[in-house]
Amino acid sequence: MGYESHDVLEAAGGLEPRGSSWPGWRGRAGEWKLISGLLRAARVGRGGVLLVRGRSGVGKSRMLDVAAAAAARLGFRVVRGYADVLTQMMPLAPLTSALGESGRTLPTDEDAAVPGPADQRLLLLVSLQEQLEAMSAHGPVLVTLDDLHWSDQMTLLALRSLTRDLASTPVVWMLAGRSGGDATPCLDHLFDLLERDGAARVMLDALDEGAVAEVVTDVLGAVPEPGVLALAGVADANPFSLVDLMEKLKSEGGFQVADGGARLIPARLPQAQEVTRGRLNELSAPTRHLLQVAGVLGRSLPVKDLAEMLGESTGELLPMLEEAISAGIVECTGQDLAFRHDLLWEAVTGTLPPAVRRALHQEAGEMLLKRGGSAVPAATHLIRSAGRGDARALLGLDRAAREVLRSSPQTAADLAKRALELTEPADPAWAGRAAVAVDALTATGRLPEAAGLARSALGRASFAPAPRLRCALAYIMLLSGRPADALSEAEGLLARQDMPDDLRGTAEWVVFWGLISLNDLRKGRPRAQAVLAGRERHSDAAVVGALLLLARCAMVDGRVADSFAHLQEALRIADSGTVEVIQRPYTRLLLSLNCRCVCQLEAADMAIQVAQQEIETLGVTVLAAQPSLFRARVKLAAGRYDDAAAEAQAGMMIADDMGTEGFIRVGLSILAYIAVRRGDLEAAVRHIERYLSQPGTPGMLFGSAWEKWVEAVVAEAQDDPGRAMDILEPTYADAEKQRWTLITVPLTAAWLTRLALATANLPYARAIVETAEYLERINPAYPIFAAVAAHARGLLHRDPAALAFAATNHPQPWESASAAEDLGVVLATTTSGTSATREQAITSLDRALDCYQRIGALRDAARVRARLRALGVRRRHWVQPQHPASGWDSLTDTERAVAKLIAGGLTNRQAAARMFLSPHTISTHLRRIFAKLDIASRAELARIFAEERSDPLPRS
């Protein structure tokens, strides 16, 4: 929900454009119905997205103009923005032009409050979303963004996120961009994604014959004769060119109007382009020169910039400006001057010889640099004018790249790479520029390109930034899922005597992270112990890395309390702010992993929430997807499959958006497990097949234990226990792997025991039980291990008392149900069974069935019903009476909680924080809630909630 279906929009109708404000609008009747429907829906609280494509001059901008005027008449807050070929290097320029400078705050390296590189894209997205939510709280909002084929990557990312997360608010988006040769693959991809989410798309084609006649009638005020329509044909059915041609000839007396008809005088057929050129040629020379300089500054430009470029005061420009405006070439838009159309702008700039245009760009760039402030506006001009070795231009590009490195690393990468192309090979500054480009490419996830550039730079010669580039290369290798290469590179760096202290700390951190990823604890343990023994000689980054590795060692050894102690000490140091920015959220996520493993789920949720805040604030984009993926595992442990699936999907989307595709693999493994539990084996197989085709995760935070086990679960569900055993053979054969697996995935102990027994491998079953009992003995403070051991032992020895203990004491619902099911099976198949034993078996199976059904484990529930039938007991498929298909009573407990918070006026982000979910998951729940209640707005939800509930609403 949140996007309107076409039939609903067409039923809305009305709100036709006034007079001839959109000449030929009758030829766009279907498109206008979509627009009017979206506007009407937004007035009652519904949001929507309309995507507009078409070639230049076909009427996209005019459509947005008329929609904005109609929205304003309806009381909308209208915010309008556009992209420009000369603002492509300015992050978020289209949204900034719509929301104003308050719509963004671009941090620079000089603003960094923490050491190390950081990417502020996440923080900027949060800021934009909060601003739009605040606007929509006071009434409907229309956002129009034009010429998005010229937008920067940050804008496209923002639109993907904002339209999705604000779908339940009264914000209407109209997004326009060219189709054909001027389109970009990135814009095509964005529009495809938005359409998949429910956005409506219109393609503005050339006007048909009837619409052409209507346009000419609107302009001339009379019905055109065939000769006039033949003249109109030279405009190629392009609305802008057609209107331009008709108005020009009308002003020259080229038509005779009589008896309601219009005929051409004289009967000649000029080309439409001649009309545009003729318009320019009729202007005075000073006005033509003014427009040419204006064209270099952009389609839209501040008048003060034009005056400064011409060396004139604004007052002295007035006569020329008035002439240009009267001629219909430019118009005033707020404080700026803008060409009325791309075609006019392109016609003006096309009159400039390339050498002159390049010289004017150079002057414009130097003017903006001298002014001070941001160097990004100057960068676009410098790129178009600078020659190889142009020192001043290169310094300007350097400044701009450093300025946007944290807010838009994609832009920084483009700027730095262009600067490299313009740098002479022998220039000492080449290496520094290469280092900036490598940092930017790394932040955007373009890891192969970053690694290639780093190696190229290192292969040139010995230069000062070499350690920095080698350190960056080690980090890239780690992110690329190549921890062995990263480890080798970092160790080579640490062997150097000329390593700066800050880089040494980073290299030591990479070493420990690599060892954790490789699970090379034999090598890592003594190294970590040595660092802690002489911590005064090591950086805090190295100490934190050592503590994290020892925390992992403790978990593998089964000493959970020791692992917690190491993590708490690492957090104390990391929170001091003297370590690499990635270490703080990384450490917090590891803490959440420990908490989940011992079923301290609320503590796990809290650690994840703090980690997410740190990831956004510190700009650790590489970890952006992890909070959702970690939450998914916590929700699985709690038996909340809908939330777990939503969080996994959110994590995958973020990974795709942020360029960390390796983590998509983790989300797919979670979705595959949920699909098995729900009985959808086809979906589970699809997820696993896609999982196997994805590049490997960088090894951070999630080890292979969970993913390998899920592969085996899917294989076993396909009635192939032998393949499942093959997948898990290394785990059965290695005590260290067993401990790690049983701690991080507690439910595997019973599952692994059952699989070993099913494949007649009694030694493996005994090994799993022994490991589970060992973990129980050395972790008496964590009751989950007693339940896990009892379940595995009960299966091995067919011990009803142990299984009953597990069923009663396991804190996780699915695992408790599984123990109850196993108890029922043992009781039902005992050779000395009595009628009382049979009843106990039925009672235990009923308990398992009830729990499986409550959490949505439909495959397991079906299996238990089959077991009950074998005992002569038939149980119907579970249908919860209080959960019909639609209406208030159809909402789940989670959905009601979300509805209560949203109806109380909380934003998605505020509700997410209250419920320990991601904002994306709240959006997912809202779509389901709206569908069940047959509504599409928060206002309607608040009304229904008020009718259904009497408890007070929470307030933000």
Would you kindly provide a written description of the structure presented here, covering whatever features stand out?
α21 (447-458) packs antiparallel against α22. β3, α6 and β4 form a beta-alpha-beta unit. The model is unreliable at 1-14, 18-22, 101-117 and 698-702 (pLDDT under 50). The chain has a five-stranded parallel β-sheet, sandwiched between helices. A three-stranded mixed β-sheet has the order 6-8-7. Strands 9-11-10 form a three-stranded antiparallel β-sheet. The protein is globular. The chain has 47 helices and eleven strands. By secondary structure, it is mostly helical.
How would you write the strand order of the largest sheet? 2-3-4-1-5
**Radius of gyration using CA atoms only:** 33 Å
N-to-C CA distance: 24 Å
User: Which class best fits the helix and strand makeup?
Assistant: mainly alpha
Q: In percent, how much strand structure appears in the residues?
A: 5-15%
